[in-house]
């Protein structure tokens, strides 16, 4: 039976052997011993006479009351029909299992005949003693099957009934028809008093078991078990997988917890002394009153779960492990005290780890699980960081695109009217200037508008991409960390991390250094391995979140997360508290008070519910002037250059010379375009043009400015016309002595 329980992961907490010849005082002693145990579920497997004696004494001892569960095997349940009313009353609320017997008409007739014969033959027996149990019915069906098998064999010769044989060097007379009879029995199938009768491998095949509840003077069937369907409410095909309601001892309808914290003593809770990460467990001892107090995240979770499990208050007796403040202690040493019955449970930041499950049981975890690598944040900001969102080739492409679009716009705008042509000095800057001053950079050519639309579309995408990438650089650490065998790794002392790093991650022992607190981690990381510190930290996520929350953005979690079980409460093997605490932990960690408990112990803003909180620090770094010094340097240089060119004689002279240079570069092309335009107009209206020319002042062109036939410009004066000659020679002005009328028009229309 013990092995059958182990096969379905049910552990027997305690086995109480009681001799068949035990007296009442012996049974009472054992019952008192059972009453001191936490487990309140009892399975009784003994013969009927001893079992009924046990239940009578258990009722008198108060162990058939609310909170207890009593189960009986078929050794007792088969004989319940033959017990008296006093014994049945002591078994109120018991749940039993027995082979199911179908109440057929044939069975009722047989029982009636059996009672009548018993009364006639044994008048001194009580009616209860005349009852038939399942053993008697099985015996009747077995004899029936034997009779059927003999009939199938047929008549036999009495002379050949036995043959001589030997067994273990002993001469024997063996039945010659034994093998035939055994073969016929194995093939015999019929409907008997207990149901379908069939032997398989020499054993009776049972179709179903009945689960019943002792109530008052009778019994109530609460369900069945079959080999094919398991536990069911009814034997029909539509039955559910749930039992009917059970009335437990003490007329208790709800399912009892099955365990109890004994009122005769306190709940013994083991807690560790740990100088580092006391946010989880912080133990202090009041030596005057000899009281141990414990606070922290693990303690708050423990108290919250205990409140859900037990609405009444109980006495908690904290026992501090490592009260001598020994620095060589470990969590494994503390957990190994549980099998010695030193504590009822251990409440600590103890990691659920497979090797520890060999000597303790763990509840479900109450914290995040996983081991992570933490390294120093090595990103370097410089004064040219605003250039980093785009690589050098993209910057060159943007500059080239600006020049190309400027040239295209220059060509397109030169084909428009001269009055609408943009100034030559702004041609190459127009793609950039149009972004800042769109109202001052109108264009006259429709194709120029098309070019500018696509330019603005491209510029918008580039600006958005630049902004997004710069934001990522300034707020998120794109750290590329490559782990090296030469790095020194820090781990938390007293934890399982040393063994984990050596056995699972194959890190050399010489590269490991242990520390006890977040402050020691920080000092070691600041020094670096070259100065006796470390290059990285391997530890569990809850510890590292506290570490990074304390030191802001100086560190970063990198690499994969190595799975562990998280933090849980530890119990001795087979403790009934495991299941109850696990269920209560789920209710607490998934409840509304979890965030309050976390922030109470770890500080404002901390939460394990945020999926990004394990990778991004709680505080964002502040930007300084240094990160944008290059941008301010460029802007300041441009501003000073503008002031120099605008407000100083040297600067103005420089700009004037640059203007003359640009004018000379583009003059020849501009003159050629003007001549083509004038020629086109003469072809369209030749006669009108001659009339207009005749009425125009001397050398006056289409723009109202006097020109000679070579495109030279004339200027008016009060006494005549002076010709300005453009050539490589110095400028020479000739007074032609042409009279001018009052309207400023020349009256003399011929010239040399």
UniProtKB/TrEMBL annotation:
Signal peptide: none annotated. It is found in: Membrane. It is a multi-pass membrane protein. Its main location: membrane. The keyword Transport applies. The keyword Transmembrane helix applies. Keywords: Glycoprotein, Ion channel, Ion transport, Ligand-gated ion channel, Membrane, Receptor, Transmembrane, Transmembrane helix, Transport. GO terms for cellular component: membrane. Pfam families: ANF_receptor, Lig_chan, Lig_chan-Glu_bd. CDD domains: GluR_Plant. One of its GO terms (biological process) is monoatomic ion transmembrane transport. The chain crosses the membrane at residues 392-411, 444-463, 623-644. Residues 676-697 are annotated as: Disordered. Residues 266-604 form the Ionotropic glutamate receptor C-terminal domain. PANTHER family: IONOTROPIC GLUTAMATE RECEPTOR. This is Ionotropic glutamate receptor C-terminal domain-containing protein. It comes from Penstemon smallii.
């Amino acid at each position: 039976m013990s092995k059958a329980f182990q096969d379905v992961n049910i552990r027997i907490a305690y086995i109480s052997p009681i001799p068949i010849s035990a007296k009442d005082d012996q049974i009472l002693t054992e019952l008192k011993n059972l009453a001191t145990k936490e487990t309140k579920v009892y399975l009784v497997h003994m013969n009927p006479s001893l079992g009924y004696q046990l239940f009578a004494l258990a009722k008198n001892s108060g162990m058939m009351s609310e909170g207890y569960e009593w189960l009986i095997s078929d050794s007792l349940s088969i004989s319940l029909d033959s017990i008296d009313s006093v014994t049945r009353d002591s078994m109120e609320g018991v749940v039993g299992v027995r082979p199911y017997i179908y109440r057929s008409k044939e069975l009722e007739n047989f029982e009636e005949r059996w009672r009548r014969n018993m009364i006639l033959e044994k008048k001194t027996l009580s009616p209860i003693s005349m009852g038939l149990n399942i053993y008697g019915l099985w015996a009747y069906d077995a004899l029936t099957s034997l009779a059927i098998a003999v009939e199938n064999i047929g008549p036999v010769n009495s002379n050949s009934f036995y043959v001589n044989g030997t067994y273990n060097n002993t001469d024997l007379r063996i039945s010659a028809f034994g093998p035939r009879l055994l073969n016929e029995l194995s093939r015999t199938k019929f409907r008997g008093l207990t149901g379908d009768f069939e032997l398989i491998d020499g054993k009776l095949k049972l179709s179903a078991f009945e689960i019943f509840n002792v109530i008052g003077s009778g019994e109530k069937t609460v369900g069945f078990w079959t080999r094919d369907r398991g536990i069911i409410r009814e034997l029909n095909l539509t039955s559910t997988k749930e039992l009917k309601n059970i009335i437990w001892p003490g007329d208790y309808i709800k399912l009892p917890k099955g365990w109890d914290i004994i009122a005769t003593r306190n709940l013994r809770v083991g807690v560790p002394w740990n100088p580092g990460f006391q946010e989880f467990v912080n133990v202090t001892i009041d030596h005057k009153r000899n009281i141990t107090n414990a606070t922290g995240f693990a303690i708050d979770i423990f108290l919250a779960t205990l409140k859900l499990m037990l609405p009444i208050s109980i006495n908690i007796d904290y026992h501090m492990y490592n009260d001598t403040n020994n620095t060589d202690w470990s969590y494994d040493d503390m957990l190994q005290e549980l099998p010695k019955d030193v504590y009822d449970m251990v409440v600590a930041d103890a990691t659920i780890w497979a090797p520890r499950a060999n000597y303790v049981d763990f509840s479900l975890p109450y914290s995040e699980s996983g081991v992570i690598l933490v390294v120093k944040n090595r990103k370097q900001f410089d004064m040219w960081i605003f250039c980093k969102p785009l690589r050098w080739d993209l910057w060159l492409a943007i500059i080239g695109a600006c020049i190309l679009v400027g040239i295209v716009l220059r060509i397109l705008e030169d084909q428009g009217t001269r009055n609408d042509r943009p100034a030559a000095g702004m041609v190459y800057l127009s793609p950039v200037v149009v972004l800042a001053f769109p109202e001052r950079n109108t264009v006259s050519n429709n194709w120029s508008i098309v070019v500018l639309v696509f330019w603005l579309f491209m510029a918008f995408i580039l600006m958005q991409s630049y902004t997004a990438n710069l934001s990522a650089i300034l707020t998120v650490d794109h750290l590329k960390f490559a782990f090296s065998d030469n790095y020194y790794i820090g781990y938390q002392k007293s934890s399982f991390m040393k063994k984990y790093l050596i056995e699972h991650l194959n890190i050399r022992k010489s590269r490991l250094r242990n520390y006890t607190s977040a402050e020691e981690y920080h000092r070691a990381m600041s020094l670096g391995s070259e100065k006796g510190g470390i290059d990285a930290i391997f530890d569990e996520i809850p510890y590292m979140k506290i570490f990074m929350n304390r030191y802001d953005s100086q560190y970063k979690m990198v690499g994969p997360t190595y799975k562990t079980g998280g933090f849980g409460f530890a119990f001795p093997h087979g403790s009934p508290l495991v299941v109850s605490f696990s269920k209560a932990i789920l209710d607490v960690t998934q409840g509304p008070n979890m965030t309050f408990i976390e922030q109470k112990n770890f500080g404002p803003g901390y939460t394990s519910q945020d999926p990004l909180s394990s990778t991004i620090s709680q505080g964002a770094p502040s930007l300084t002037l240094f990160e944008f010094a290059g941008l301010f340097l460029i802007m300041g240089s441009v501003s000073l250059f503008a002031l120099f060119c605008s407000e100083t004689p040297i600067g103005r002279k420089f700009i004037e010379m640059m203007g003359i240079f640009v004018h000379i570069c583009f003059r020849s092309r501009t003159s050629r375009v003007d001549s083509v335009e004038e020629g086109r107009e003469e072809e369209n209206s030749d006669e009108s043009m001659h009339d207009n020319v005749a009425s125009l002042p001397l050398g006056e062109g289409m723009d109202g400015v006097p020109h000679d036939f070579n495109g030279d410009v004339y200027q008016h004066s009060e006494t005549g016309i002076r010709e300005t000659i453009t050539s490589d020679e110095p400028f020479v002005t000739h007074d032609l002595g042409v009279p001018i009328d009052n309207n400023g028009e020349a009256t003399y229309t011929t010239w040399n």
